[in-house]
Amino acid sequence: MQRIEEIYNRISENSSSFLGYPLAKDFDYKEFAPFLNLCINNVGDPESPSTLAIDTKDVEKDVISFFADILSSDIKETWGYVTNGGTEGNLYGLYLARESFNNPIVYYSESTHYSVKKNLHLLNLKSIVVRSQCNGEMDYNDLENLLTLNRDKPAIFFLNIGTTMTEAVDDLDKIKALIRKYAIKDYYIHCDAAFLGCIAPFVDPKPKFDFSEGIDSISISGHKFIGGPIPCGIVLAKRKHRNRIVNSVSYVGTLDTTITGSRNGLTPLFLWAFIEKHGTKGLIERAKKSQELAAYTEEKLKQIGVNAWRNNEALTVVLDKPSKHLCEKYQLASEENIAHIICTPGIEKKQIDTFIKDYEKELLVSEVFA
Fold first, then answer.
1. Local confidence pLDDT in tens for the 370 residues of the chain
2. What does pTM read for this prediction?
3. At a CB cut-off of 8 Å and minimum separation 6, what does 12 contact?
4. CA proximity to 18, closest of 326, 254, 292, 253
């Protein structure tokens, strides 16, 4: 048991210090501890009962209904399930897209999450990487050039609603304009809203990314902005796409519509508990506080001479990459000459201030030895 205590203490300490990853810290699910002594298995389709009756599909359906609502749809038009995380949600969206057309091409930007390349390989999908702009947003001129070369082929547009490093949002209106301009009849739009799916509906101006704008599917992470002890996510798609791939499985007496057969039954409970406690109003307040902290962080970094910036109302503050020591101490994700701080719920101003002081000391030392 000593090793278990050591592992707990290590993870607990590291959880309090990281600033560079989109993981909320302010959750408490102690009330669900008794469920750890039960096997909970949401096998198969969340809307289809199974002969194995040890599931939480009832609350899973409530979770999906909530997200369908904030994404401008309803469960009559939209179907979904609780996944193991954003990567599975993106895999599912691409899977539905592949089954919609013969020999399609996937267009995605170079700022897209690393897992998408793996998903494309698993699905054996043809793809073309589109250049990104400086802020991480897709380069639409490059996309147009690529489309002109392949306008006769079905197109799958994989859009980022918040890129990994800079929280950039691809412009759906510009994508749709290109679809009209080149008369692309067969197309599918998937949105990767892993981090921003719980925030973007309440940003002003609101990005165009939900079902009212004509998208086909969307993936959101549950453990990032909402928070939780186990990685999870939500994938939603137009019901007509789900109906295209449904199969009946006599063994468990349910429908097979998801990526995995056995599915986590705990994570729908966590998401449901958050929704019951906070609801839409809670998400809005959460987003506002995080945006205020991000603005504070950006300003404080600029005051000590660090180049820092954000995309529109982003929770991600991009900054000049500090030393390896500071990156490791505060667990900052970095790429080339930039790093970022992500102001998720649970991070406090005093943590930001401590980082600023450390960074300022580092800058002063570098000036002395310059």
1. 899 999 999 999 999 999 999 999 999 999 999 999 999 999 999 999 899 999 999 999 999 999 999 999 999 999 999 999 999 999 999 999 999 999 999 999 999 999 999 999 999 999 999 999 999 999 999 999 999 999 999 999 999 999 999 999 999 999 999 999 999 999 999 999 999 999 999 988 899 999 999 999 999 999 999 999 999 999 999 999 999 998 877 667 788 899 998 999 999 999 999 999 999 999 999 999 999 999 999 999 999 999 999 999 999 999 999 999 999 999 999 999 999 999 999 999 999 999 999 999 999 877 666 5
2. 0.95
3. none
4. 326
Q: Please, what are the domains in the chain?
A: 2-26+288-368 (3.90.1150.10), 30-276 (3.40.640.10)
Quote the tokens at residue 235: 């994938």
Of 179, 147, 175, whose CA–CA distance to 159 is shortest?
175
Helix or strand run (H / E) with residue 361 = helix 349-368
CA dihedral over 348, 354, 355, 356, signed as positive or negative: positive
Tokens, residue 86: 């954003």
Give the up-direction half-sphere exposure of residue 102: CA atoms within 13 A in the CB hemisphere.
1
Residue 68 CA to residue 74 CA, distance in Å, equals 5
Spell out a b/e string for 142-179, using b for 16 or more CB atoms within 10 Å of the CB, else e. bbeebbeebeeebbbbbbbbbbbbbbbbbbbeebbebb
Name the amino acid, one letter, at 162. G
Q: Are 299 and 286 in contact (CB under 8 A)?
A: no
d(CA 47, CA 28): 28
Q: How many helices (H) and strands (E) does the chain have?
A: 10, 13
Query: Which two three-digit tokens encode residue 37?
Result: 């002594």
Contact between 92 and 235 (Cβ < 8 Å): yes
How far, in Å, CA of 82 to CA of 59, rounded?
A: 10
Q: 177: Cβ–Cβ under 8 A, 6 or more apart, which residues?
A: none
Q: Give me Rg for the CA atoms of the chain.
A: 22
